């Protein structure tokens, strides 16, 4: 007797959770009628990817029916702190449901229950019916489900969440996540928890006593008196939280498992959906795998257009030598590297991908291993391949082409290859199209070539089962790898000619292309960090937070959650009777709760109230601990003792670089605690860190671009620009300008760059809108050229669809003609700001390149380490400090030819903080 066939896996997609994350992760997009569709685009792409990757699975998409659920009856304040969704997201709620229907997937929702409850109930029923279950969500509450045939998949990070990942996040297994959440609470859902108990402490307590109830039954055994008392005072709050974070496993199931069977994708239905929502790149990818539906009946698709390239595994040196010879003949070579890590400092070369003609790609495997870590037979020797490639990769007569070539430059430099000259298809796309779309290879291949690339998961799997590329069988890895180089070559052939057509050659050739090699060096070098100092800071910040929490409770006269805006508003305004807005009515959010943002607390603290300042101090310490001290410790390279950030070159609309993994650009510098964190970044022995920071560069650019003579003269004479502005606006002598007037002028000086209005200025200065409006009018009356510049920028954006920096970089404003006032207003502010911020970013890039060339010419041992907003950080030998300082200042101050002089502030010391 044959065994019964295994039932298909049941995939439950958290549609409501995903749309919020997609909305905030993706840049603005609109369909032809102006309706926002960025979250729809992300959601539909995710669905399509899942359908391709899991052809045998049954899929259900689950949504929240409304913001109210049975939990609201248990606790009125549940999720009451959440703001209304952004107006640009609201119309997309219905569209994501249309997306599910276009893919013929069941979409379910039940009034009174959250999507989490439906997912829990379907998971339970699915397991009972013999299905394995995959929950597609990054919601921490759903991690309670992991185990016994139920796994999770984070669609934003493309990462599987199993038991080990749950333990890593919560310190306990899935079966105790509910207990930990009940103690720690959840500020995002306004679940109270127990004040002062974080996830780490909650996990320790739950593990020690077995469960929440086990803990509550043994409170007399808690050794710390304060902790014991806090727990005793909040027993009911903990039990309430336990009910709130628990999942309902008996929610109604709107459709049966018999109705979830997979259907063939309907090409006509999907085309109609994509065309209606302007999703051209998605449509192109769909039509690669779904029978294409001609736009006009009777016109057949050219079969040749759908042919895939051919790929070859190189196992003989003669073949590699022939490829190299062909590269010399044609004058170009597309190259990609395959490695076992995305971190340049830790990655080892696994193989090299090459292409010299469209339609054919090659993969040279070098370091693939079997399940026992032993080298696989049939690979060329690494040393021989490096020796064969080094001459052509370093030859200036052969153009090398890569996608995110910065990574290839960094990897190959570790093997002694200083590759050049290079072209980068990611940067070509970025220069040409800005933030109009993403610049990943997969997206560009679909957009420009109508080609669906092989997903990485098809070779290496996903989640906890994912393997590194060196363990992938060569037979599976070869097509994926060779495709990278072949697609890169075709993208280069499609994009490079557009530089001349669109007059963007200068931006690419003088800024982006040469900067890639410089940034690769910065990433490989890294910056040294004192881990012991970071550990000490984490302990100090945590202890001070506990002290501040106790102090806040004493000032309030009762215990409350410092992380709950609702409770905070009640304490400050209902119970203590404080008044914000200069004695006027206290502001409330759309949910009816009091506004308790930093601006409100700062205003109250400035009025002499002690509790708001305590709360501000507590919030700052919480952020510093979570975002910096704890996180940075994990990022220190075990071999180098240095942090190796990655600079994103194609992530912003204005050309600014961004830093990630870790982000070193957002470490605060204006607070004592923030400066302590910078003090953990240190120089090597015999060196010092040097900081070179442009002074007020965006205001100087504004003075030049708007041709404001008074501002130019102030800058030329090194006069306090904010005092000058205040004096001219308010008819005072500069020496008579007080702190308040200078503050107002400074706020306007910088606010104008971002298109600030009367409402925004009134909020920042704590004054009435009428007074703020009068300030702005006085400013424009004093500097009419600024208003002229603003109107000119908006007009250019409306006419061209973009504005440009002084160096020709285009910053696109797709919503400038939107019928939605909020989107149009945002685009207008961007049109005003982008040329200024973008020009400042271009000047910084020019400065980096000038300084690097000058240091190399001088034979200096000074190393550039970081670019942080308007600042460059260097590691300088102590005996070079004087010479290096003079060189860096000279090159940075001469990086632009403006009608306003650029100035650079320089400092140095053993730590980054000392250098400020």
TrEMBL record:
Which InterPro entries is this protein grouped with? 3'-5'_exonuclease_dom, 5-3_exonucl_a-hlix_arch_N, 5-3_exonuclease, 5-3_exonuclease_C_sf, DNA-dir_DNA_pol_A_CS, DNA-dir_DNA_pol_A_palm_dom, DNA/RNA_pol_sf, DNA_polI_H3TH
Q: Which residues form the 3'-5' exonuclease domain?
A: 311-500
The Gene Ontology biological process annotation of the record reads: DNA-templated DNA replication; double-strand break repair
* Catalysis performed (reactions): DNA(n) + a 2'-deoxyribonucleoside 5'-triphosphate = DNA(n+1) + diphosphate
Q: Which GO terms describe its molecular function?
A: 3'-5' exonuclease activity; 5'-3' exonuclease activity; DNA binding; DNA-directed DNA polymerase activity
Q: Where is the 5'-3' exonuclease domain?
A: 6-263
Does the entry feature the keyword Manganese, yes or no?
no
The record's EC number reads 2.7.7.7
According to the entry, every stretch annotated as the DNA-directed DNA polymerase family A palm domain falls at 674-880
Instruction: Cite the PROSITE patterns for this sequence.
Output: DNA_POLYMERASE_A
Q: What does this protein do?
A: In addition to polymerase activity, this DNA polymerase exhibits 3'-5' and 5'-3' exonuclease activity.
Q: Which NCBIfam families match?
A: pola, PRK05755.1
Q: Which family does it belong to?
A: Belongs to the DNA polymerase type-A family.
Q: How does it assemble?
A: Single-chain monomer with multiple functions.
Name this protein carries in UniProt: DNA polymerase I
Which species does the entry assign this protein to? Arboricoccus pini
